[in-house]
Task: inverse folding
């Protein structure tokens, strides 16, 4: 770790082992599916096998008569009481969106949509009976392929009259933040260089390990929902807004949640249906999805075409970048929906000094699973686009790709820097991160080996991929969200409660699902209040305890939620100070607070914050008129985004005879500002890297011509295993962010955002001399082999499922064959 | 219904089960052993891994009736006398878990890997864990944890 921050640190910066682990390694966990309530009933769903069909009849009589079945419901039975699923971010005023009922009664718009549900005394009985529900469908033509859907030849929702949902544009000339990109391109066509490419962002599935589960208990005055969600507060708001139940009667609890990666940032049909049915029956009801249901019905991510035009001068100076995206929404506009590609709108220019920029995105309906946030959300797509194009430009100019980047990036003495998008980058040091990365990677040695192999005509060629990236984290300043027409703010809430025994309860509106908030947030508060790490208890994920919050996504928990903790702690100290003065019979002006102790300046007299807490609890002797509490709430609204950055380097061997890819080394140096806990940071980077690498090499949600998800189980949706992956060379730097007092920038998405282009650039770099300049992701051996054989024609052919290599034993004999 | 008698984490249970009941559902729903979890329906993910007579099995791939008369150890039975199993300790110390959902199965499988091969290479560890999926850690720290457990104690079950 390179520390460039001279702030005195105690807990912050320490590699504390996690508080969360004890229950997780011993099986004392509270996953939603573990919950059992007296009289609880179980639900199973009946899902459409067709991508697009009219429901002409549903016969539920056999299911209703099956053993231990309590009720069967269709969409018509649920009626208006089922509520509706909301989109929180209509990206344009004229965005088209079909009504999204949790359970439609007339027409299904994707394979996997729920058409009926069965409630029974056991999960097995419910599932058995669900098989007996007889649904008659009249199949309709389905809009499937994204570009074809754009033509409106087949409509995903005939009533809308078009598949086009919204067209969103940012133009630097119109915004006054830069020049005219068309002029820059025209000029480059005459006396510079223009690179034009079209890249495919494959459709991905977040594939959190815990399948989604929901329990609703309508008994008692409060209606309680437990849900495997990242966003209990958003779910509560949306339930109140769409089902007519007062918000004050709704309690949503996210207990232990097994991963999310954006995939549990949603308001789901399953939650709404269980809510409606449990309230109708007056009994607790549980629904837990199977993995197959999860893959087909939980939202997917990415799925875009990116048409990119880059203009530069002949010496490599960048002058313009034009981005035209087509983004697949799937069948409905999800809660963030079309906002996901827009989150990338300000990032395609990345760390480079473009003088003109244009971004346009067309969102499109298809009869496929809906799409929404998946780790990085918009920013991986942007990073992929720019970093692939930088390598393409370098190749065109015959420049060393790192040199091209150096020539164009914002140098460390230019911060704060306002980009061509109008974003103000507060801090960064791209030179230092890159120097550290190239040294650790052994960049020059690997380049030398690459040359040797190339000169020798080695059938195994070496490729080096680069990704120098930045991202915007800390979602988000509420005013910015408002200007983008997002439906809510981006603040975060915290409370600090001083207990009589000296323990500290901290309530956060962030909602962890693997991030380690209980540990990292304890470290922050322990430093702020000067209390032992062990004495801080972090409470979260229950709207009755944490009544206010914006939840966890977009690398925001620490940057926004952590700052709220600081503000609340400061208020506690401010409240305690007059008490200390009163008890020590000193002037408030003479009281100094340091390391948990209020001392009288110039004396050895003092009281600990715990002693003050006890005195306030007793309230026997307080300053006149003082309210007997030290507890404090704070809501923090960030003033700006934070901009972590980093340099990622990847070396792969490509077997030109088989197309097999083997990763040799992966080095990254991420500058993420102040590090609260280096252990947690490294873990976040490792996991993020593998998700980004997986997009490049393995994962793909594939549909057949009928709109059926072919990769609908873990047999075919190939998550990487331990045997597919390698150990990573991970470093971080800490140029503090200037936009918050802790100096944090966020790290949850960095690895995923940066790694995908690093890997693809490496693969292309290995075989570019054979005439290959692109391979569609995932870069399976089949595609690599075909690219080599066809001497560089772009490979848009779909993956053949059987070609996925990593369950084949022979592939793994020689190390991490990919 | 079929009557079975199974030893789980040191206690003996006698129950009537439907013959089709999977061991994982028996453990979770009838015995309340919710430390063992279900992550998929195709036996790919390994989240439900337990030990059956000391060998790892995916408990979604075993019928409860097949466990009749046998010994099952779940994640909940690993710690002895308040002492964590060395593999549990290693997972904690190496930060080999984040959301923790795959962790019970991953720990049970990791113990089995070391039982088979007390001194595995990194690649042998990776191949030994190939049947267990983790979405959070990228496996990096899981491999380190198994290496640490191997060097500190050798295999223990």
Result:
């Amino acid at each position: 770790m390179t520390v460039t921050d001279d702030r005195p640190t105690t807990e912050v910066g320490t590699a504390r082992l996690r508080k969360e682990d004890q229950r997780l390694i011993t099986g004392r966990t509270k996953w939603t599916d573990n919950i059992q309530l007296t009289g609880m009933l179980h639900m199973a769903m009946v899902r459409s096998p067709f991508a697009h069909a009219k429901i002409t009849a549903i016969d539920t009589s056999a299911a209703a008569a099956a053993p231990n079945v309590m009720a069967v419901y269709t969409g018509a039975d649920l009626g208006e009481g089922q509520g509706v699923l909301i989109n929180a971010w209509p990206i344009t005023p004229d965005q088209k969106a079909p009504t999204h009922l949790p359970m439609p009664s007339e027409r299904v718009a994707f394979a996997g949509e729920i058409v009926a549900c069965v409630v029974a005394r056991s999960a097995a009985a419910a599932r058995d009976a669900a098989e007996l529900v007889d649904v008659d469908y009249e199949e309709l033509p389905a809009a499937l392929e994204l570009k074809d859907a754009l033509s409106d030849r087949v409509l995903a929702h005939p009533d809308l009259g078009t598949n086009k949902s919204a067209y969103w544009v940012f133009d630097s000339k119109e915004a006054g933040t830069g020049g005219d990109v068309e002029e820059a391109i025209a000029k480059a066509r005459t006396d510079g260089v223009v690179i034009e490419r079209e890249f495919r962002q494959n459709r991905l599935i977040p594939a959190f390990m815990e399948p989604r589960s929901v329990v609703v208990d309508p008994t008692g005055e409060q209606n309680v929902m437990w849900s495997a969600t990242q966003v209990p507060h958003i779910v509560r708001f949306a339930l109140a807004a769409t089902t007519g139940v007062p918000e004050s009667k709704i309690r949503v609890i996210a207990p232990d949640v097994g991963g999310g990666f954006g995939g549990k940032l949603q308001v789901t049909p399953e939650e709404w249906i269980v809510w409606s049915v449990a309230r109708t029956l007056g009994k607790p009801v549980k629904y837990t999805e199977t993995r197959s249901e999860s893959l087909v019905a939980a939202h997917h991510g990415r799925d875009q075409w990116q048409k990119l035009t880059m203009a530069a001068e002949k010496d490599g100076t960048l002058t313009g970048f034009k981005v035209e995206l087509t983004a697949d929404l799937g069948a409905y506009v999800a809660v963030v929906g079309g906002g996901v590609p827009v989150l990338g709108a300000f990032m395609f220019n990345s760390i480079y000094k473009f003088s003109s920029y244009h971004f346009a995105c067309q969102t499109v309906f298809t009869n496929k699973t809906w799409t929404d946030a998946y780790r990085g959300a918009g920013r991986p797509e942007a990073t992929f686009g720019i970093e692939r194009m930088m390598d393409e430009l370098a190749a065109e100019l015959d420049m060393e790709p790192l040199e091209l980047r150096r020539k164009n990036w914002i140098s460390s003495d230019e911060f704060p820097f306002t980009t061509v998008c109008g974003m103000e980058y507060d801090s960064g040091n791209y030179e230092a991160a890159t120097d550290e990365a190239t040294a650790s990677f052994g960049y020059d040695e690997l380049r030398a080996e690459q040359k040797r192999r190339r000169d020798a005509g080695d059938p195994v060629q070496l490729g080096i991929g680069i990704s120098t990236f930045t991202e915007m984290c800390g979602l988000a300043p509420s005013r910015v969200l408002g200007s983008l027409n997002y439906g809510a703010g981006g603040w975060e809430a915290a409370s600090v409660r001083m207990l009589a025994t000296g323990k500290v309860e901290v309530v956060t509106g962030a909602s962890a699902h693997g991030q380690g908030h209980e540990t990292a947030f304890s470290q922050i508060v322990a430093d702020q209040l000067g209390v032992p790490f062990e004495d801080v208890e972090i409470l979260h994920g229950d709207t009755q305890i944490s009544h206010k919050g914006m939840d966890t996504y977009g690398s925001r928990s620490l940057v926004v939620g952590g700052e709220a903790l600081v503000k609340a702690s400061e208020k506690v100290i401010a409240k305690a100070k007059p008490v200390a003065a009163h008890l020590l019979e000193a002037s408030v002006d003479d009281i100094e607070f340091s390391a948990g102790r209020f001392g009288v300046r110039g004396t050895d007299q003092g009281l600990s914050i715990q002693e003050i807490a006890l005195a306030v609890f007793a309230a026997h002797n307080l300053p006149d008129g003082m309210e007997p509490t030290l507890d404090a709430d704070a809501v923090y609204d960030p003033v700006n985004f934070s901009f972590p950055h980093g340099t990622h380097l990847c070396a792969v061997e490509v077997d030109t005879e088989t197309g097999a890819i083997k990763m040799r080394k992966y080095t990254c140096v991420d500058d993420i500002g102040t590090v609260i806990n280096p252990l947690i940071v490294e873990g976040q980077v490792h996991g993020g890297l593998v998700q980004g690498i997986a997009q490049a090499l393995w994962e793909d949600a594939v549909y057949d011509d009928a709109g059926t998800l072919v990769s609908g189980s873990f047999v075919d949706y190939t998550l990487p295993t331990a045997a597919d992956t390698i150990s990573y060379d991970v470093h971080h730097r800490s140029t503090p962010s200037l936009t918050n007092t802790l100096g944090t920038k966020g790290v949850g998405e960095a690895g995923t955002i940066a790694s995908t282009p690093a890997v693809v650039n490496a693969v292309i770099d290995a075989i570019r001399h054979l005439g290959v300049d692109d391979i569609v992701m995932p870069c399976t051996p089949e595609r690599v082999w075909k690219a080599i054989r066809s001497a560089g024609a772009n490979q848009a052919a779909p993956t053949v499922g059987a070609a996925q290599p990593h369950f084949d034993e022979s592939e793994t004999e020689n190390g991490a064959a990919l | 219904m079929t009557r079975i008698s199974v030893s789980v984490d040191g206690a003996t249970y006698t129950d009537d089960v439907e013959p089709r009941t999977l061991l994982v559902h028996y453990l979770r729903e009838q015995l309340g052993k919710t430390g063992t979890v279900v992550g998929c329906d195709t036996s790919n993910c390994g989240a439900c891994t337990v030990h059956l007579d000391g060998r790892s099995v995916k408990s979604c791939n075993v019928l409860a009736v097949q466990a009749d008369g046998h010994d099952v150890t779940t994640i909940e039975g690993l710690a002895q006398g308040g002492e964590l199993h060395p593999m549990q300790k290693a997972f904690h110390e190496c930060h080999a878990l984040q959301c923790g959902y795959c962790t019970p199965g991953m720990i049970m499988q990791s113990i089995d890997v070391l039982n088979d091969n007390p001194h595995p290479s990194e690649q042998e560890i990776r191949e030994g864990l190939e049947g267990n999926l983790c979405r959070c850690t990228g496996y990096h720290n899981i491999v380190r944890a198994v290496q640490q457990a191997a060097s500190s104690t050798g295999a223990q079950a």
